């Protein structure tokens, strides 16, 4: 393969497919799954109305529901709407697409979804957990389409706390498809009102109501130890099929709305399981595995952290640094995230003690809001619907324990695929810059190697020469020595002063 080939998209897609197979993931749907899909589509054409017991559903289609996601997102899992309450409280409703009703357990489509456990988003294209005819069609909360949903209802107090909650099934209709960047620009007074927002009377006020609630929720969480972390992700920019650059994507005010609503909704789902005496799958981040290095980094910034992990103290340090050096804060955030360690899925017994999520400062957290693209959420939806209907639990605790382990392993594999293909895309961009030097920050340091990310280019590679003494969070000057597009290798040499 010539890395100079102009068909970069095809190259990256082939690399992605190979990487998935090598890590036990399946890039293509089996014939049995495609046959099942055709049956579902035929049934939907014959009976376009969502099929469900009307007595078990609330009709909420008249509410001004909206979706907020990336510009190019087509698999819409959530809608949101707000209602003003007395004493400064706000009722937030989150509608989550009812996917479980279309994908029966142990069916061919379910087996594919369970194998991969997640959609895989690569620079070479998306490998969806469910066929796009479902995830971006029949089970997506698409604009102006009637859909079945699980609705999480939350009353948010004036202080940002969740004061009451409920969970039920409903019919909903998306009335405005909005995008993060344009919504954030409008909310922050840096852009005009998005056309889709202006097209629905009163929706601008509803969005501002949501924004105000989300800001209070965010403040409440961080007062209780949630961490202010802000990383930058690289998204490839194509002209035709040739990659021309990497666009940096970070947080913004619109993303904060969805982030805080989903964290709260996932907490409601977890507590709902407990109240109904059902087991569940939880997402946890345990006590930081390298707290001593976090303490060392903070000390280098003149801040003393306690010797034992303390989320509130770490949040104080992070907020201080965010205010003092906002341009470099994403680099500090990345170092802290690496040192906190990865999240994982665990099975929670009905009467068990929740382990919690260190970075979010929450004890109850069950992934439930993205069933089109995460299998843990699809399994959680089956549990929720069974509990709502008074049916027996569809999983035993040992089954959930095995599923949680598999979701963790498969998600880690998917993340590795995404990183590898991202590095292959970066290698295509850097292959003509061998020998150049760059500023970088160390993002990984272990027996298996040391890694650094370029600043400001969001490109990570391995420090193959001169890595002695480097640790996570350290600033370093590196020289690009080699790239390997096929394997996603980018090699640096540390340049000592």
Note down, in words, how this protein is organized.
The chain has 497 residues and is an alpha+beta fold. The protein folds into 2 domains: 8-285 and 343-425, no CATH class; 431-497, Nucleic acid-binding proteins (OB fold (Dihydrolipoamide Acetyltransferase, E2P), Beta Barrel), CATH 2.40.50. Helices cover 38% and strands 24% of the residues. It has 13 helices and 18 strands. A 5-stranded mixed beta sheet has the order 1-8-7-4-3. A hairpin with a 2-residue loop joins strand 14 (437-446) and strand 15 (449-455). Helix 1 (8-22) packs antiparallel against helix 13, helix 2 crosses helix 3 and helix 7 packs across helix 8 (253-275).
Low-confidence runs of at least 5 consecutive residues: none
Structural class: alpha+beta
What is the total tally of β strands?
A: 18
Q: What average pLDDT do the residues reach?
A: 89
Please describe the biggest sheet, giving its number of strands, its sense, and whether it closes into a barrel.
5 strands, mixed
| Percent of sequence in beta strands | 15-25%
In the sheet with the most strands, the strands line up as 1-8-7-4-3
- Number of self-contained structural domains: 2
Overall form: globular
- Treating each run of at least 4 consecutive H or I residues as one helix, how many helices? 13
Helix percentage range: 25-40%
Calculate Rg over CA atoms. 23 Å
Alpha-carbon distance between the two ends? 38 Å
Briefly, what is this?
About 40% of the residues lie in helices and about 25% in strands. It contains 13 helices and 18 strands.
